[in-house]
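Hey team,

Filing this mostly as a record. A colleague (T.K.) asked me to run one chain through the structure pipeline before their review meeting, and I want the input and output archived in the tracker in case anyone asks later how it was produced. No errors, nothing strange. Just documentation.

Input sequence:
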Amino acid sequence: MYQRNKKDLQKSWFRSISFIILCLPFTLLSCDDAEHKKDDQVKSFYDVRGFVEGQIILMNNERPEVSKTVSMGDEKNQVSAKDVDWKKELELFLQADINKPAYRLSYTTQKPDSFTTIYAVKPGEQQLPVHYLKVIVDSINQAPTCISAVLKSENKLYQSEKNIELNCVVNNTGSRIVSYKITGYQKLATMDKNPFAVKAEVHY
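Output structure:
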């Protein structure tokens, strides 16, 4: 009985912390979703949303197990689960997509090599939520092996930074997410910075 209650408490704590980490201001998300619907065809940058949405469908069908360590402040919790809502789990990676009409002239593009593309927000556009996005693809299928981004949000009451990274393996059927991590902090105007970290491995 004690072990069962302990597991239930851990899952409840895990869900609460995950919700806090994934939250962005509601108005920001509403605008982003609306712009995405308007811009369903034209892709000025790498289609992060399309890739992640494809992975969500695969993972909801295949139901791989995820092992996750969540840290917030001095507290740390580990949990494993197969019953995962992957759309909610990968929400931050959907938010890293920059294919929105208002963003077309807001980013510089660099290609340090033939497999890597880096998008960085231009000076004067610091209010945008995605400040940096890097996509690395494999040499054969041009499928993503790593997607990383920096997301920032700030107003008079709230400040946050999230550094996210998605790692994939590529085979003859395409990419599969094998791990991901989120690190950063949240800060309310009247409080100190609250650091957090999420590290997860996916087992098929």
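Quick notes for T.K.: The chain has a mean pLDDT of 86. The radius of gyration is 18 Å.
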